[in-house]
Amino acid sequence: MKKRKIKIACIALLLCTILVKASDLKLWYSHPATEWIEALPLGNSRLGAMVYGNPAHEELQLNEETVWGGGPHRNDNPAALKMLPEVRKLIFDGKEEQAFDIINKDFRTPRNGMPYQTVGSLFLDFAGHEAFTDYYRDLNIEKALATTHYKVNGITFTREVFTSFVDNVIIMHITADKPGAISFTAKYKSPLESKSFTKNNKLILTGRGADHEGVTGAIRMECQTEIKTEGGSVKCEGDKAIVNGATKATLYISIATNFVNYKDVSANPHKKAVAYMKAAMQKPYDKALQEHIAYYRKQFGRVKLDLGETEESKQETHLRVLHFIEGNDPALVNLMFQYGRYLLISASQPGGQPANLQGIWNDKMLAPWDGKYTININTEMNYWPAEVTNLAEAHEPLFQMVKELSENGRETARVMYGCNGWVTHHNTDLWRCTGPVDGPNSGMWINGGGWLSQDLWQHYLFTGDKDFLQGAYSALKGAADFYLDFLTEEPTHHWMVTSPSNSPENTPQGKKTSITAGCTMDNQIAFDVLNNALNATRILNGNTQYMERLQKMIDRLAPMQIGRYNQIQEWIHDWDNPKDEHRHVSHLYGLYPSNQISPYSSPELFQAAKNTLVYRGDKATGWSIGWKINLWARLHDGNHAYKIICNMLKLLAPENKEIKYEGQKDGRTYPNLFDAHPPFQIDGNYGFTAGIAEMLLQSQDGAVQLLPAIPDVWRQGNVRGLMARGGFEVSMEWDGAELNKATILSKIGGNLRIRSYVPLKGEGLRQAVGENSNPLFKKNIIKKALVSSELDSPQEPLLYKTYEYDIMTQPGQTYTFKRTTINNN
Q1: Which residue in 45, 415, 531, 722 is a FRET match for 57, CA 20 to 30 A apart?
Q2: pLDDT at position 659 over 60
Q3: pTM of the model
Q4: What do you get for the CA distance between the two ends of the chain, in Å?
């Protein structure tokens, strides 16, 4: 009997592999999910669902983007303004611990941001389906569709689930290949303060967001489920919906809240939920699915990547991750790359909220770090793939949040610091709180708004859209205005620096607190904020005196410093420890995502950045690994970037006795490909996707650089549809890890400067001379690095030879370039 069961299991697994081609962009499994990190995520930005695929006890865990605890609130502490001069004096006198105590007392409030919360789950119980065979489930990320197949008593059951981008509801379609075989009971379970009941042939869940840190829960939520059947019957009674004897059943799940915006919760959730439901149910299932896929593919289909396929590609998804290091599975890198794009499309669409620390997927009342927006890197990292992987629409919710923070943060700047402009600290939430969150070692960081404002400027560089820049100018200028007022003179070099602040969440050796003044990341962000405001003002023909004021402040900023270990200093003093492997690599912001460190114009800083990254080590939490892929790509070291990819693609398996596989203890990827901090944070997924794009294409250093960091293992491949600054859409083919052909669509025209490791030929191509004439590629002019007196001289990097070409392009025209040889005679 035991051998027979093994044989049946092997046959079932073989059938599963036949269903999945190596080239398919699918996550697939031969067993149901038993834990959340095995369930499959669906989302349409507003709604999220995690699908377990359990034959007998299906669970759809549900989220709606505005179900948060608390309500509109402020967390500014006016006492900070009076104590600010004393805090600064203590810091400059080297008494950071005393400054910490004052900040902890007079800069904070009891409010540390409100939590993102789950709606709950819809459970479907199918009596007698415990004894299933021929099981298969997948998530098709080319269709944004989750599917489950299995057999019970010779009958094949199929479930399809999607969160409709068009109809704004969650739809599950259940079929059987025998008439009248579908019977189940549907019921909600929610950790919210809620009640479940039936009315008008609907299963309804109502609830409210939790009170949190003294702020009353303001969110009111309603979730409705209605079921259509072909054959059989539907009966709603008590808190259950019961289906009997159907051949097909289609469930429509509509969720709505009273949220209007961060200041207004006056909407009627019942009316909104009814409106979504009524419209969705008027449409045939097949049409709803087709329209959903068409909407999704319009964004997802813009980019294709092919790194090759092997037999390993045919394994179940979690096993591919488990065996990635020992095997040869380049297609898994492609799947993970495209999965990040899928998750961004699914979590962030125009008119919605930006992706938070969980994206949109959370099964808890108190998610890790409340699932908020951590803006000392994590939220920014969520959007690193947006422009370069051709998903500019997905960026829009973040732009809206920046606008709202720039409104709310003006009061914080005025009340706490006596400054013009706007500020927000290291964390925010649905209600756009802008004061310090959590203790001083992480919360006393005033650069959240400054960093977020970079996304506005970068979108302009990718699109050249002056109308967008005009609309974003108030937020860009307001961020700069805050630095103009907040920066203060430090006593030794008389540089203008931030104080108080910290290098995010890291404490220098020999100190007991992270509180400091003028750390390197702050100086780099301040430079970007002021310089971007200067450039934007010039482009929009703004006030000349204001531009002069910006330039004077830029001239007084601290330069980057190369310390005694030939590293980029993290702090204004040379306090770095070369054995420090802290997850934050904040002082390399200037390398990535900024563009202040260049191998061509600041080679000594470029090498110091490399040394810094070597000291930090190759292992870290999931999101930090995502950052390091991008950093090594910017260092033009594809092989090292690939090493970091291998550190990410290690399985962190759930503790599950029924499933016999063991993940690595240092795993950073869960079975459903979610990033593991651990616990789950979605930023690592987005950072991974951005990192792959950065290895293939860069455009931050005065030119469009083709294949800047291709690793040796990617011998052959092609990519289509990546975006470069200047509005250039780039497709490439390569062989022997070197470029063969590039096809570039110019969306807005202008000079295209190409940088390549191989010589190129193409009609109209000419050797580049001087600076790039395209203003969207204007290089930043930074101060020369200050080098430690303990170094004889800073190191400089060994760089590959590059070839640079210019071609003047026309809007809408496509240009093709091929590898050639150089005649030296």
Answers
A1: 45
A2: no
A3: 0.96
A4: 78
